[in-house]
């Protein structure tokens, strides 16, 4: 199996748990995910299979959209509902205090990932250090929040929709918003709605896949369709051979006229994705070859 699978992850499983179950169901060892979802989270988990695993680094970089519930009035050790409370609970803020506080978290800014995260510190995962009671906050990362919309606020529970660049942590938003409001905060619920061009509405629940014993062929996204934002370049047989050998190709190896837009392009032969290549002068240089 070569392609991208869209899974609607249930709560209670790690992203690795989902991959392990899919390996067993599908009998495919070459599986991976393109963006971790915490155990409490539900929603879209993008899985790459077979040759599509070579596209992971690009798919991981997609913007992501979430619906979240942030509990204001209590900080926790993990910045989510599974952590231990830190300090005494505080009264949640009045709704009138929210707009000014939320404004700080729109646009581009430096965000410090949670201590309990998959970020590496000195070669070790931050969450491993935290579990060993050696918590160290990872270095701040520049993120961009493109949407931060309030969906509701009641009893200290703030419902928001967030669209942000890769590397953004909604748990860190909950922590920092609580600090900004002076009351503490943590993430109570999280559902991922989208990753780049992929939507949770098109995803299959894991239990359904297990009950069916597999995934219908029409629900497997072909590698060529996994990165629709990149220009498509059809190559001649001679160009295909050069690409497979890791060599650059020129205009003589292209069937038709390639678009002049994206720096990275999809190299296609007979409808199949064979490589990703980077434009350099008048040539296309392969950076990932699928075969």
Tags for this entry?
single chain, 291 residues, alpha+beta, Pseudouridine synthase, Archaeosine Trna-guanine Transglycosylase, Chain: A, domain 4, 3 domains, ten-stranded mixed β-sheet, four-stranded mixed β-sheet, 18 strands, 35% strand
Please state the CA-atom Rg, rounded to the nearest Å.
22 Å
Unreliable stretches? none
Question: What is the CATH architecture annotation of the largest domain?
Answer: 2-Layer Sandwich
Q: Strand pairing plus helix content: what structural class?
A: alpha+beta
Number of helices: 7
Order of helices and strands: EHEEHEEEHEEEHEEHEEEHEHEEE
Written overview of the protein:
The chain has 3 domains: 3-62 and 197-224, 2-Layer Sandwich (Pseudouridine synthase), CATH 3.30.2350.10; 64-195, Pseudouridine synthase; 230-289, PUA domain (Archaeosine Trna-guanine Transglycosylase, Chain: A, domain 4). The two termini are 14 Å apart. Strand 10 (141-154) and strand 11 form a beta hairpin. The longest helix is centred in the N-terminal third of the chain and has 12 residues, at 15-26. By secondary structure, the chain is α+β, with helices and mostly antiparallel strands. Helix content is 19%, strand content 35%.
């Amino acid at each position: 199996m070569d392609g991208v699978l869209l899974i609607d992850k249930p709560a209670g499983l790690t992203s690795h748990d989902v991959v392990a179950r899919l390996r067993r169901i599908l009998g495919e060892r070459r599986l991976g995910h393109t963006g971790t979802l915490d155990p409490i989270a539900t929603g879209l988990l993008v899985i790459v299979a077979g040759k599509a695993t070579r596209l992971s680094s690009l798919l991981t970089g997609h913007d992501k959209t979430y619906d979240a519930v942030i509990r204001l009035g209590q900080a926790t050790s993990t910045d989510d509902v599974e952590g231990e409370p830190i300090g005494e609970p505080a009264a949640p803020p009045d709704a009138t205090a929210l707009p000014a506080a939320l404004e700080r978290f729109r646009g581009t800014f430096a965000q410090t990932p949670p201590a309990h995260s998959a970020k590496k510190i000195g070669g070790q995962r931050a969450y491993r250090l935290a579990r060993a009671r050696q918590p160290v906050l990872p270095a701040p990362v520049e993120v961009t929040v493109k949407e931060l919309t309030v969906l509701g606020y009641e009893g200290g529970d703030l419902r928001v929709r967030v669209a942000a660049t890769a590397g953004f942590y909604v748990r860190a938003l909950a922590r920092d918003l609580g600090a900004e409001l002076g009351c503490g905060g943590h993430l109570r619920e999280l559902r991922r709605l989208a990753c780049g061009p992929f939507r949770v509405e098109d995803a299959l629940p894991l239990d359904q896949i297990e009950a069916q014993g597999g995934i219908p062929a029409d629900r497997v996204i072909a590698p060529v369709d996994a990165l629709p934002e990149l220009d498509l370049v059809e190559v001649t047989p001679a160009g295909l051979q050069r690409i497979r050998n890791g060599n650059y190709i020129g205009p003589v190896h292209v069937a038709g006229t390639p678009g002049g837009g994206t720096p990275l392009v999809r190299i296609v032969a007979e409808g199949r994705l064979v490589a990703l290549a980077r434009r350099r002068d008048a040539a296309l240089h392969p950076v990932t070859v699928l075969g």
